[in-house]
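Title: [Solved] HIT family protein 3D structure

Original question kept below for reference.
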Amino acid sequence: MSDLIKDCLFCKIIRGDVPSYTVFENDDVKAFLDISQVNPGHTLMVPKKHITNFFDYTAEDARRYLQYIPAIANAVKKFDPKITGMNITANNGKSANQVVMHSHIHFIPRFEGDGLKMKTRNNADKYTEDDYKRIAEKIREQF
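Solution (posted by the thread starter after getting help):
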């Protein structure tokens, strides 16, 4: 676990310096209950390598760590038959509400009528065909 850093909360959880409610662990990732429990079963998955967020992933990091998303999502869903959906999210950077600067994925179980709102907005009326083409072209150029 030499890829961990001293002052990172999730690195401390991986090392066992901070207790957690672990639901899955192997050589690559650790999944544990989020202490906030937005809904019952809210789980986090973290790589056992300190990576700040998805902007710092290599292709190999993605292959190694993200392969566990379906298994963890299904395990969380199966724990309660009342779960009808799930938000699987990752906040990347402070402006995207990333609080712990160690890559992590949230698995938030959803229940009919749970009242949880994931806020987005539709700005389609503010964009022209040319705007879409210009933005798409600029993104394509980054590959």
